[in-house]
Structure formats: C-alpha cells, structure tokens
C-alpha cells in the first residue's frame, strides 16, 4: 500500500457503507415478517458451509440505533441498506405489513437525523417464499408483484429516501441462485435460467415507473461487474471471453441502456414493449466490483462455452478472490468506452474484501489488508474520474461483519467486527482509516 495521501475527490462525492437485510437484520419471526427463499435455503441441511442461518445474523432489527451511531461515527454521507420484501409483504402480495414498514421508517428517520442519506435497495435476493412457490423469477407475474411492492415502500418512504436501487446484482441471483444452485432458491438450470434475467429486468423497469410516481428521488440498479481476462491466445479462448463478457457484464446493462439483449442471448418470454419498459432512463448506475474473471475455452464435453480460470500473481482475500484494484479502473473506463453518452453517472455501490479478522489480546481488531484494499480501489476510482468517467460515490462493503450467504458466518467483510455469539460490535482499524479519510473530505 502506498503511503501517499489519496488525491482529492470531486465536491459532493458520496462516501458510504452498504449492507443487506437478510445478512444483518435477524428478527426472522419478528412483527409479522414472512419467510424468504433464503430462510428456506439456509434451513436445508448441507446448503450453508457452517450450518448457520440468518435467523439472528447481526440482530440489526433490534440494534439498528447502535449501527446508525457507528455510521455517524464514521462520518459517512450515505448508507445503502436493503428492504426485506417478506418483512413488508409477508406473502409477496396484498397490503403492506405495517410493522415492517414502521421498522424502515424508524431507520430512515434515524439516518436523516444524523445527516446520513438513506439509499434503499428494494431487492437483495430475499424473495418471499410464497412467490417462489408460485414460480418465482421464472414466472412473469413476479415482475408485476415487485412493482406493487415498490409502490407500497415508496408510498411510505418516498419523501425521505435519497436514492432508490431496484435490484442488487441480478446476474449473481440468476447465475448462482438459478443457474448453478449454490444460492437460494437452489435451482440448477444452467442456461434455462435466462427467463430469470428477463423477469428481473422487467421488474426493474416496472418498479422505476412505480417509484417515480411516488418519489422525486433518483433511481438506480446495482449490477455486479467483472472484467474478463482471457487465459489463452487462441481464437476459441477469445471467443470464450466474449461469451462470458456478454453473459456477466452486458446481459444486465445493454437492455437497460436501450440496446436490447446482447447478440446470441434471447431470453424466452420477451413480449412487445418489454424492452421499452426495461430501458426506462436511469439516474445512476450502481457498480459492484470485487475482482476480474479469468476465462478460457471450455473442453468439448462442457455444458458451458467457457471455463473460469484462477488469476495468479495477485494477493488473495479469505474468499480466495484476487485483489486487483486496476480491474476497477478498467471496468469503469470500459463502461464509458462501451456506452458513451448513454452511460448515466456511476456510483460504486459495493467494494470490499473478506479477511479472517479477530480481536487481539486487548480486544482490538487490526485489518491492514482491508486498509490496503480500500486504498488501492479508491485510487482506481480516482484514476477513472481523471479519465473522464462520471463517478459520484463509493460504498464500502460492508459496515458490519455479516452472514455471508452460502458461506454462513465464515467470511468477514466488515469495517466493524461482530461477535456473532453476543452481537458485540468492535470497530476495526479499517473503520478508523475510513473515518479519517471521510472526515478529511
């Protein structure tokens, strides 16, 4: 890590932290919340590495005031959280659960009282289980249900949420949840999962209209992006790289920006007018970045046209992901080169790393690897801004160590250490580093 100070960022740059509902809230049975696909998945033996569930997680549902105080101590200007659909609509339809909306109203008001902008994500993978039982994202009707849910939330919070994010990482939810089955709902469909892509995108477009009817705040989507690094020099390797890039990076961006689906990808069930709904103008494009992906041509008997290959020669996180800050710069400049004036302003809505952090004998948690990671990635953002990319914010993933999906409690991403047995919060050295950075800004 360089010891030189980070260069200045543009005036008004949004400094934030991110979380998601199922990963931190707990309160699984509190105040009328219904089951989600992640409740079902986590309670299925063999699905989660350590056998844990998100039933309690960080108990943010009961300790949110403590967590808002931690954010106030950081000095961040924004908090990106997600709203639990089954907490608001336990059955996935019908009237709102008042207690569920009351919780988010308390959270939003507490944030505003401390000068922190609420940034609300409507869907971070926790689909109400009754909707999954009716077909889930394979069923077109789910898109319409999502728009109704968006309307209910915006009717209550539309005057106070400062940025709406419709969906989080629809590619990951499609590929891991429906393609390979390692995430909820655990479907193994491979390319038969493409209807999930279209119905999520249609849900986004319908929700944009619902949000704008209730709220004047800007609207975004948060996509996961991964620059593709071909690991081979044959035409087949290069073709494999292009195929993976179309699937991971273009499938959920080209249609949003009015370009339709990438060549060679044609989800079933597209109706006249759908692409116009999907291409509703975005105010912000959320970019989630963790690492590039090495790709080479697959073997002849593979069901996929590409093979993922580890990228060597880089430091690695506890998730065994390569740490490549330049990949974020290249991603941001590449989006600008690909989409030009059609590209809206960008906010980096997730950027972070997992390490095996633990308190020392004095109870302090030192995480120099995370400081180095954040320093490098923020320098990459600054380089992209210098290259002409309109990047207006950066959110660290995550505020808290959390329940990390199929990895359970085995991976720690937080600026704040959480003792999952007691719920005790301990700010790490990265918390102090980020606080000092933000307050200097």
UniProtKB/TrEMBL annotation:
GO terms for molecular function: beta-glucosidase activity. Keywords: Carbohydrate metabolism, Cellulose degradation, Glycosidase, Hydrolase, Polysaccharide degradation. One of its GO terms (biological process) is cellulose catabolic process. One of its GO terms (cellular component) is cytosol. It holds the Pfam family Glyco_hydro_1. PROSITE patterns: GLYCOSYL_HYDROL_F1_2 (PS00653). Its EC number is 3.2.1.21. Substrate binds at residues 23, 124, 168, 290, 397, 404-405. It comes from the Bacteria. It catalyses: Hydrolysis of terminal, non-reducing beta-D-glucosyl residues with release of beta-D-glucose. The keyword Transferase does not apply. The active site is at 169 (proton donor), 350 (nucleophile). Belongs to the glycosyl hydrolase 1 family. NCBIfam families: BGL (TIGR03356). This is Beta-glucosidase. It comes from Micromonospora halophytica.
């Amino acid at each position: 890590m360089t010891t030189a100070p980070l260069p200045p960022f543009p005036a008004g740059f949004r400094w934030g932290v991110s979380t998601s509902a199922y990963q931190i809230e707990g309160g699984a049975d509190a105040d009328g919340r219904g089951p989600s696909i992640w409740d079902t998945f986590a309670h299925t033996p063999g699905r989660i590495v350590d056998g844990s569930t998100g039933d309690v997680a960080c108990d943010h549902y009961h300790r949110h005031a403590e967590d808002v105080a931690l954010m106030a101590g950081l000095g961040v200007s924004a908090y990106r959280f997600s709203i639990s659909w089954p907490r608001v609509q336990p059955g996935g339809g019908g009237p709102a659960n008042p207690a569920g909306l009351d919780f988010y109203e308390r959270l939003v008001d507490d944030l505003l009282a401390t000068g922190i902008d609420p940034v609300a994500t409507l869907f971070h993978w926790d689909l109400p289980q009754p909707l999954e039982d009716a077909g889930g994202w394979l069923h077109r009707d789910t898109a319409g249900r999502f728009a109704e849910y968006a309307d209910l939330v915006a009717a209550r919070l539309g005057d106070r949420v400062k940025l709406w994010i419709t969906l989080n990482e629809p590619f990951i939810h499609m590929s891991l949840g429906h393609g390979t089955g390692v995430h909820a709902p655990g479907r193994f469909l491979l390319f038969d999962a493409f209807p999930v892509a279209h119905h999520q995108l249609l849900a986004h477009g319908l929700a944009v209209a619902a949000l704008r009817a209730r709220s004047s705040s800007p609207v975004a989507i948060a996509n996961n992006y991964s620059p593709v690094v071909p690991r081979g020099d044959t035409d087949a390797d290069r073709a494999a790289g292009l195929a993976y890039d179309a699937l991971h990076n273009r499938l959920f961006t080209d249609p949003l920006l009015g370009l339709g689906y990438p060549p060679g990808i044609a989800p079933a069930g597209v109706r006249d007018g759908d692409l116009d709904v999907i291409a509703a103008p975005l105010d912000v494009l959320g970019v989630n970045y963790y690492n590039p992906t090495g790709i080479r041509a697959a073997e002849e008997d593979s069901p996929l046209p590409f093979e993922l290959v580890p990228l060597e020669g880089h430091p690695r996180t506890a998730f065994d992901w390569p740490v490549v800050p330049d990949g974020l710069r290249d991603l941001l400049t590449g989006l600008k080169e690909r989409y030009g004036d059609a590209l809206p302003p960008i906010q980096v809505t997730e950027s972070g790393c997992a390490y095996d952090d633990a308190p020392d004998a004095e109870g302090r948690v030192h995480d120099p690897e995370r400081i180095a990671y954040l320093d490098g990635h923020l320098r990459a953002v600054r380089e992209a801004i210098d290259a002409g990319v309109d990047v207006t914010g950066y959110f660290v993933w995550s505020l808290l160590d959390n329940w990390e999906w199929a990895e359970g409690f085995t991976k720690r991403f937080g600026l704040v250490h959480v003792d999952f047995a007691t719920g005790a919060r301990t700010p790490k050295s990265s918390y102090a580093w980020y606080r000092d950075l933000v307050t200097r800004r």
